[in-house]
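Researcher: Let's try something more involved. This one mixes different molecule types, so please make sure each is placed in the same coordinate frame as the others.
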Amino acid sequence: MRIVLVGCNHRSAPVAIRERLAFDGPKLDAALDALADQFPQTEAVVLSTCNRVEIYTASEQPVRSPGSEQPVRSPGSEPLAAFLSDFHGVAADQIAEHLYCLADRDAVSHLFEVAGSIDSLVPGEGQILAQVKEAYRIAKDRGATGPVTNALFQKAMEVGKLIQTSTEIARKKVSVSSVAVEFACEIFEADQFSTKTVLVIGAGKMGELTLEHLCELRPGRILVTNRSPDKATAVAARCNGRAVAFDRLDDWLGEADLVLSTTGSPQPLVSRDRFAAVMRHRGNRPVFVIDIAVPRDFAADVGDLENVYLYNIDDLERERSKNLEARQREMVKARAVIDRETTSFLSELAHQRHAGPVITQLRHEWNARRDVELARLFAQRPGLSVEDREAIARTFERFQNQLLHQPLSALRSAAANGVHQHGLLDALKRLFHIGQ
Amino acid sequence: MIVEGVKLFCFGASYSVALAAEAAAALLPATWRRGASLGFAAAGVVAHTIYLGHRALAADTPPLATSFDSLVVLAWVLAVTYLSIHWYYPRFTVGVFALPVIVALIVLAGLLGQDSQRDLRGWARVWGPAHGAVLALGGVAVFVGFVAGMMYLVQARRLKAKQLPSEAFDLPSLELLERLNRQGITVAFTLLTIGLGIGLLLAIQQGRAGDASIRLLDPKVICAGLTWLAFGFLLQMRSHPQFRGRRVALLTIVAFGLMLFTFVGVDLLLESWHASERVATKGLP
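Model: All components are placed in one shared frame. Result:
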């Protein structure tokens, strides 16, 4: 059994190549059908996201090139690369240098890295696990998967969740907007945001992105103000807020708990004295000011006022960098988990592949012999009641299971520990005359 | 018997180890630290409970009639409060603020030494322990306000320095800490009022019964009155815009110091009827 992966990602290929190889919408179903036609007896899953396109296959026989009688000596990557080229109508030499081809342990380990978000553009982001799950679901619904890819992708999702829960990789926020939200949660109670007012000053793109994140906290009220009332109205419509007059800025500052400022003003809009007056007006209630405008909208010394927590773009960027570094440290832990789980998966797979048929045959033969002996006993003792017969049959079955338990456990244990189990399998076959 | 072998030192040491585990946050993985601090604090509470139970059985009254007992009981209530907070909010670093107070109370009780048990009669037999119990509960509210105030100051400082919390040292939001601080002050003032009221009625009743040993000008009574006034001031000021957040937190810490002085300092430094006659058992029994 070979597991083969061919694909490209954000590191190996520019977006111009990735978008040409993407399997979006109906293309994905067509690709799975085409794979089944061209590579019969081969299980396949196609993972296509904005950052990667990958085809995972598993087959008993080496994958053959279409129309070729000879199996390919390599792990089967050439036919899959050719498939990508043919399916998308892209010249093979244009994509060859951007593709990576991995087999068996490397392919399994890579999928676990993808599911664990180690291989993502932003390590630790949680979306990729859902995308892996969706890719598997589509392939399964299409009938493209089989025992190996089923086990592989189920294990991949398990590993992805394990990495999320056992490491800190997903907890560290790595965008400026999400760091701003983290700071907001350090100032205000997360379940009290419905009582809070967010004031947005300006209509910058970055501001809207940050506002999107702040909206996840479900603030009670969003006020948007801008020198241009039309722009304020447009932003307010997008965030379910209310556009308010710019000339009453001090009033809105007095009402707001969170202020997001992102104007293009060449001079600071709010001086220390102006904001000190606002603070008196608002009863000195704490306020969180996110000033991501460049040049800044709030004078730096506004942050010296009591109960004013003023953060500019550099402050947020600094914390974001720290979080990124922390994530990199967590990657080491995550890789150790992946290494361990890859070994465990391959051992289990090998066990199922090699020992599975032998165990099935052994059980089958013992069941047959047991049924013969029971039939003989029941023929000799026709007076036995139905209850007695069932009790005797259950006892025989229990006894058989107890006899088989030790040898089968030894086989499983050998597989789990990575011990080559062919010796044990041969011994089992010879001892119990299986297949002879 | 094992129960009799439980000494002040046993649970004092347990709480100290729990504190050391909390303080070693940067060195220990979070799960180890939480497990160690929770385990040792729980062991301390068990030993503490056995100690108090044994003392109550031996004296045949609740162990609240002397300054020594009041301190040990107060430390016990605070330890149980801390353990509950730690259990429900394991993410937050509460131990480094709460455990030093608990350990300090036990050390002060040891320094103070055991008083001879007073012979409480009549009204005093019921209302004496009630006076002590209500004031001890008031002490818990003060403690909650104090710990929330300390945490508020640290959290506000960190946010002013524009730093996010680390896993090793995480605190609740400023808003929650301010709310806990305010609630602590409100409950503390209410309980201190009731406790001191009971004490006042007790003194008047004892005076009528011809017992002149309880004096309203006793240093402890005066300090308790000042503490009550301080909390009344805090209660009044908390709604004043200029006294939000950091200033109220600072004042709560000062008021907590005043309460601690009333509980212990008076007995150690001044002549007070509440100090009673000491038995020569200083140190950690």
